[in-house]
Amino acid sequence: MAERGSAPEGTVDALTGVQKWRRLSGWPNLLKNVLLGAITLLCAAWSLEIQHYVGIAIFKEQFLALIFGLAMAAIFIGLKPTASTAHDRVPLHDWLLAAMSLVCGLFVLFVYRDIVETIGELRPERIALGAIAVFLVFEATRRAMGWTLVLLGAVFIAYSALSHLAPGLLNVPSTSPERIAIYLYLDNNALLGIPLDVTTSIIVAFILFGRVLFAANGDRFLNDFALVTMGKYRGGPAKVAVMASSLFGTISGSAVSNVVMDGPITIPMMRRAGYSGPTAAGIEAVASTGGQVMPPVMGIVAFLMIDILQISYGEVILAALLPAIMYYIALFVQVDLEAAKQKLRPVELSDAPSLGNIVGRGWIFVIPIFLLVWTLVVEHWQPGRSAMLAVGATLAVSLFNPFTRPSLDKVWIAVRETGQTVLELVIVTALAGMIIGAIQISTLGFNFSLLLTQAAGESGLVLLLMTAVVCIVLGMGMPSGVIYLMLALLIAPALVETGIPRLASHLFIFYFGMLSMITPPICIAVFAACAVAGTNFWQTGWAAVRLGIAAYVVPFVFVYQPALIFDGTTAEIVTVGAKTAIGVAVLAVGMAGYLFSPMSLAVQAVTAICGIAIMVCPFGHPASWPVILGAAVAVGTIAWMQRRRSREDGVGARP
């Protein structure tokens, strides 16, 4: 496979192909690069808790405000207000917005001690800067992601000011605009809260790890390893795409970025092998989205979850492991059967390096990944600190091989591109923080959960189905971090109230929020794949739903059978894991519509229903008859399909 590009993420819009970021030169470019480098290095130092070692006393909120100010300044210097704006210069109004951003950040940095002591006072400068901060976040969001998220944030903030006009349970006393402005700007449950904290203290370190890994040619190792191990099988290009995208996706945690970076390589390769355009684009979208649920990294959501639930990172990735495996079993089975149905050939590997050669030059990358997982899961280090150890280990081990040794220029590019990637994360997390602040100040989270519980009545299944639909609808068009945070406040409490364990509840909303990435009509991972492949959106979207089918069922399994998330005895975990894997494979066969020979729609439907029954229904007590019946019907269907294929082969062989 070709080497991945090193262009900064976000230079071009993933969905429209429009250049969003300016291509500057001279001192404006130098200033922007200095800001990007400062953001990365300051966050790296914060992850390592350098401030404690050098004796600097600083509140977390002061540091977050500083990063917010620097990032927003870089955003307005680099991000164009409209597609038609000149890309080679910064107009005066953007310089003013950049200056206002710095003022908002530095104000908190320098006077935070006074703010803490007089937090209840409605001082004019705080009201003014709070209103400016809200405007800056909205304008940056509009430029980076369009009006949808701006309108969403505006609705929540408007509700906190006008909640006394709402009907029914949503009617609560409202808050004055002045107090809202100060709360959203200065409170540690709003702008300076969990989302921005997780980004600066954890996510930046993981992004830097990924960038340093690429600078040391770690991406070539992952690409070549996927190609040689999977390319020799039928449907090899698609299996390479699945493996490569899952490996990169678990590091990046961004479905859209992963599609845009991997898609130009994997989608043409799949199409040359014989996969249709919509199927190839759907495979890439589903594989890239699955990176968010595959341990050990899982993107930003895993770190938000451990902060909200106050549990260890090891508990989260252990709970996420088996559901993620089920996700990829369904995808691999369908990819394989699609190749069999189309009689597709493996990848031509005559020019590819041998597996021994690949492992010989790339085994060193196992060391930083091992240290990352070991310190997170066994030693229980803070995630940011573990990621920075992985960064240091990658740089250290890469020095011993000329193929992996990065130049100082490549290291600086990794630092700068980390800062560039962080800019849009700061936009997203700043807006998410303000939405959380609006929900907190208006008590909307409690009232919405109560409303949802009442609408579901006494049925837990109805509540779960309603929750799944709400999660997908609310998540459409939004980044996964914003989706999860909003749903964690609005919906997760309703699930916990019904007796569902907190971790299962949060994983449930995470999965269905993530599914908005591949579920029409607004599914940004599919949009990105269509843009790369040039395919019809609806055909690609439904192909993605079919390929990602396991993710729509598995959350119901771990809610009713928590052994799938390692909440149970060893025997329960093994039984539920094996049963679910069999059910996922049977469901995937039904969705693929092929086993030895093409299936009729009726046989497909029966097979899919059997797979769902095996997955969802419990096993080991009197109510387990659906599992036994589903397994029996599935085995009978497989035997019948095999006999039919044998008869067809026999007829075809007659002279």
Outline type: globular
Q: Note the total helix count.
A: 29
Class computed from helices, strands and strand pairing: mainly alpha
- Give the fraction of residues assigned to helices: over 70%
Give the end-to-end Cα distance, rounded to a whole number of Å. Answer: 45 Å
- Strand arrangement in the largest pleated sheet: 1-2
What proportion of the residues form beta strands (DSSP E)? under 5%
**Which regions have little confidence, pLDDT < 50, spanning 5+ residues?**
1-10
Q: Tell me the total number of β-strands.
A: 2
Mean pLDDT: 83
Major sheet description: 2 strands, antiparallel
Rounded to an integer in angstroms, the radius of gyration calculated over CA atoms is 25 Å
Please provide a brief summary of the model.
The chain is mainly α and 655 residues long. The chain has 29 helices and 2 strands.
Could you outline the blueprint of secondary structure elements for this entry?
Elements: H1 26-47, H2 50-53, H3 60-78, H4 92-117, H5 124-145, H6 147-162, H7 177-186, H8 194-215, H9 218-230, H10 236-252, H11 255-273, H12 277-290, H13 299-309, H14 313-342, H15 355-362, H16 366-377, H17 383-398, H18 408-442, H19 444-456, H20 460-475, H21 480-490, H22 492-497, H23 502-514, H24 524-533, H25 537-547, H26 550-560, H27 570-592, E1 594-595, E2 597-598, H28 601-616, H29 625-653
Helix pairs in contact: 1-3, 1-8, 1-18, 3-4, 3-18, 4-5, 5-6, 5-7, 5-18, 6-18, 7-18, 8-13, 8-17, 8-18, 9-10, 9-15, 10-11, 10-12, 10-14, 11-12, 11-24, 12-14, 12-24, 12-25, 14-26, 14-27, 16-17, 18-21, 19-20, 20-23, 21-23, 23-26, 24-25, 27-28, 28-29
